[in-house]
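Entry for 3-isopropylmalic acid complex. Fields follow.
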Amino acid sequence: MEYRIAIIPGDGVGDEISKEAERVLNAAADKFGFKATTEWFDWGCDRYLEKGRLMPKDGLDILKPFDAIFLGCVGDERKVPDHISLTLLLDIRKGFKQYANLRPIRLYPGVPTPIRTATPETVDFVVIRENNEGEYSGTGAFFRPDEPEGFAIQNSIFSRAGTERVMRYSFDLAEKRKAAGYKGMVTNCTKSNALNYSMVFWDKIYAEVAAEHPDIATDKALVDAMTMWMVKKPEWFDVVVASNLFGDIITDLGSMLQGGMGLAAGGNINPEREFPSMFEPIHGSAPKYQGQNVVNPLASIESVRMMLDFLGQEAAADAIGDAIKAVLAKGEVRTRDLGGSAGTREMGEAVTAALLKD
Ligand code: IPM
Ligand code: MN
């Protein structure tokens, strides 16, 4: 089996973490007897300054034939305003209909977290973030922004098709998890008490799709209460479905349950496999740490695990998961965010060594 993987390291620390992701990918390929051909694309802020575009005009056509994409991290405010640089990421998510943003929240043994209720037993759920529309529709307008009567409009767009498909994905995932011993429940993260059109519609479609899955328990949490319950009782959750913005916010909180941004990974999934899916750490690009070999590459390595799982290399994916767990449980190699002094490279090498052992 051969896979073509596009690597877009992006900005800031993107290069360093992508190298560790690639190191582990190559080691897994060697060990499990498949081939992973990687191609790197220098798209991002530097390219924007040089050529006026973050990626080439036909960037999506270039990426389309790949089996999957690994994205490091984008953005460097010193060079390009964030709302411009981040279109690189958002255009790929939307252009490739990666409408399900899969963000597992899991705490591995040996990882420190500032949240007292978080233990490896209590933190084990998945957030599905709607990834193509909602509050991120990217439409709106400025009206006389410099005048006293001026205003801005930012549209939230919730289409029936867009909402149904992410609900279906979430309930299907809950079915699979239930078969594997989980609770079998989808929590609807909403705010329909205040957002009386968009979220009322969202709730209605949640209920319609829930009715197609009588064996899956339903559950509802207003997003403000959701943040409280995630800290108070993380063990309650199994699958959480959230709109684009709410999913963005609660997964940053989720990252603290799992030990910090250095460990939080995500997959931007096109379930129909009509386009490549994209895997990425959910953290930012931390430009101030660029080139210093200090950031934690585990979120990137975890993204590679998710990628291989999605591509059908489950054994390799599980082995990467086990290698990450072994390194964390041993605790000898710890990056700064985990209270140690190991570098980005040392952590990548430690996971690779654990993967290749026996
Ligand atoms: C994320 C990030 C992005 C988002 C930013 C970088 C546009 O915060 O992936 O969670 O808001 O989706
Ligand atoms: Mn975010």
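NOTE: The chain has twelve helices and twelve strands.
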